[in-house]
Amino acid sequence: MSKTVHPNAAAAESKLLSSYADDIALIADEEPATTLEDFVRQLSLASIVLAGTNISGSADLDTAANTLAQLTFGGWAQQRVLLELAADQLRGVGELADEYRLKL
What we know:
Blueprint (H helix, E strand, L loop, with lengths): L6 H22 L7 H16 L6 H12 L6 H14 L3 H11 L1
Helix pairs in contact: 1-2, 1-4, 1-5, 2-3, 3-4
């Protein structure tokens, strides 16, 4: 995914990574993502892992990955909407990670 995003999107991407990268990395059993591309890949992997543990919510991670993968398209208005949508889709990540920790 080659990224060409509006400069304002960089701050929003950074906020998503700082908010969710550690929990997603735990589930994906990897180091926390430092780029959006790695984060999208880890979201997809974490979705697969959670689906195999019967923890509900894995589809939200896959949906967020697909949403974030679309960031390279459109202008700032579209990118802002996609970032806000992804943030909403990721809102339950902390709870998913907590439930996953209990199953470890």
